[in-house]
């Protein structure tokens, strides 16, 4: 029996007042509300359709940062590096979040996604599941592992996974919000949305069930289409 579709609200916040320059590349915000609504979210929902989960756009808002400490935070993020085991610096996320008026968000209403120019440390996204919060970068040097200057993320990637896209990163980080973890290195099956040695867009049956159960816990009785 086919499971009923679950709709989960998601709200995007586009940060427009952070200018970040790395290796002579001026990473200015470039994503538009139209791109999020007509290109990004449909691709996210295509990926999540196998779980009968649909992300419903509750809004796209401009977001401004506090001027106090902005320069120091920007410098820290630009210089953040991964440790010897490949883990990104969690302090950069705390510093970025300190610039936003997060108290205005209601996590009971929607998952809040903040889109900044760059996340640092060759990262493209970071989720805080307990707060129903996601941070995303529009520019990335992840495909080159920091060997080349940052470049604009692909909005979508047609065909099989090769370097990733902004839309896939959104889908991946929303998976963390719904309780999904990275698989252990080498764990089958491959081509998985949540990563592994051979990443892709797939969700296992266990991941689909976990995501649906977590949705009920986080949102009570979500809208069912």
Helix content: 25-40%
Total tally of structural domains: 1
Q: What's the SSE pattern? A: EEEHEHHEEEEEHHE
Q: Spans with pLDDT under 50 lasting ≥5 residues? A: none
The H-level CATH homologous superfamily, spelled out, is Collagenase (Catalytic Domain)
CATH class: Alpha Beta
Number of helices: 5
Quantity of strands, as a count? 10
Question: Beta fraction of the residues?
Answer: 15-25%
How is this structure best described in words?
- This protein has 225 residues and is α/β, with parallel strands linked by helices.
- The protein has a single domain, classed as Collagenase (Catalytic Domain) (3-Layer(aba) Sandwich).
- The protein has helices spanning 33-48, 70-79, 91-97, 166-177, 205-219; strands at 6-15, 20-22, 25-27, 53-63, 111-116, 125-128, 133-137, 139-140, 151-152, 223-224.
- The strands form three sheets. Strands 1, 4, 5, 6, 7 and 10 form a six-stranded mixed sheet that branches.
- It is globular, with a radius of gyration of 17 Å.
- The two termini are 16 Å apart.
Report a brief summary of the structure.
This protein has a single domain, classed as Collagenase (Catalytic Domain) (3-Layer(aba) Sandwich).
Write the layout of secondary structure elements.
Blueprint: E1 6-15, E2 20-22, E3 25-27, H1 33-48, E4 53-63, H2 70-79, H3 91-97, E5 111-116, E6 125-128, E7 133-137, E8 139-140, E9 151-152, H4 166-177, H5 205-219, E10 223-224
Parallel strand pairs: 1-4, 1-5, 5-7
Antiparallel strand pairs: 1-10, 2-3, 6-7, 8-9
